[in-house]
Amino acid sequence: MDEVSVGDYILSGGEPAALVIVDAVARLIPGVLGNFESALNDSYMNQLLGAPSYTRPAEYEGLKVPEVLVSGNHREIEKFRRREAIKKCLKHRPDLLKSADLTDEEIEYIRSIDDKIEL
Questions:
Q1: How many independent structural domains does the chain possess?
Q2: Whole-prediction pTM value?
Q3: Per the domain annotation, does 50 fall within a domain?
């Protein structure tokens, strides 16, 4: 018998954990997601946590979507999202960075934020 963990927390019963597993597996079935390509950018798919998501309007209650995300420059948008994911990992899961496939530029970026991290 295999043991499966859905995280380090306590639930009220087995049902919520079962729903988490059903959802995680169902996402892999063609047609379940509106666009399967979007799943390729989910957290952990690229060995990092996901970058923050923004929506419309571009400004809400004084908070603005970063300019790069509305620029239309797909290369810069991807670079921005990757850096945001790296920052999120540094804050919440620095252990993920040790096994992530990072470029030399990304390693330098990490060291510019936290020179004590070991990669």
A1: 1
A2: 0.68
A3: yes
